[in-house]
Amino acid sequence: MKIGIASDHAGFEMRLYLISYLKKEGYNVVDYGPSVLKKVDYPDYGAKVAFDLSTNKIDRAILICGTGIGMSIVANRFPRVRAALCYNPFLAEIARIHNDANALVLGGRIIANELACEIVRIFLETKFGGGRHLRRIKKIEKINPEKLKND
């Protein structure tokens, strides 16, 4: 599995920690940066990863900013990206089973690195539940805001 990962400055240390963990677990990791710890804008990094996830250049994404909220907003602007902000393993499991989330978003200032590893493990190992959940995913994919505006 090819995993893209990026952060802003608030998620920089967690990103490095998770890259080490993921490589040790045998995952193919693509690091989108930033390469040095300095203040950066999360949309610049989140958009690169979300675009590559949207165009199938990577299989899953992990995005980290201070709270995870900003990266979630950025990632979910892209077609076929279903980013879930998770701060515990249960949310990561449900995001995969119910929503087939393909991007995990973490708050670097909210959770500890060890907990982040557990959340990542659950997120990557959990399979999508399909069934009624697939029907809902298909409905999401068909949403056209322009059409709703005209109704």
Description:
Pfam families: LacAB_rpiB. This protein is of the alpha/beta class. The protein has a single domain, classed as 3-Layer(aba) Sandwich (Ribose 5-phosphate Isomerase B, Chain: A). The chain has a five-stranded parallel β-sheet, with helices on both faces. β1, α1 and β2 form a beta-alpha-beta unit. α1 packs across α5 and α4 runs parallel beside α5. The longest helix has 13 residues. The relative contact order is 0.17.
Summarize the structure.
The protein is an alpha/beta fold.
Tags for this entry?
151 residues; RpiB_LacA_LacB; RpiB_LacA_LacB_sf; alpha/beta; five-stranded parallel sheet; Ribose 5-phosphate Isomerase B, Chain: A
How many alpha or pi helices?
7
Contiguous runs where pLDDT drops below 50 for at least 5 residues: none
Question: What is the SS-derived class?
Answer: alpha/beta
Radius of gyration: 15 Å
* Major beta sheet, strand line-up: 2-1-3-5-4
| Overall domain count | 1
Question: How far apart are the first and last residues' alpha carbons, in Å?
Answer: 41 Å
Let me know the largest β-sheet.
5 strands, parallel
CATH A-level architecture: 3-Layer(aba) Sandwich
CATH class equals Alpha Beta
Beta strands, count: 5
Mean pLDDT: 94
Work out the helicity level: 40-55%
Shape: globular
| Proportion in β-strands | 15-25%
What is the element string, with H for helices and E for strands? EHEHEHEHEHHH
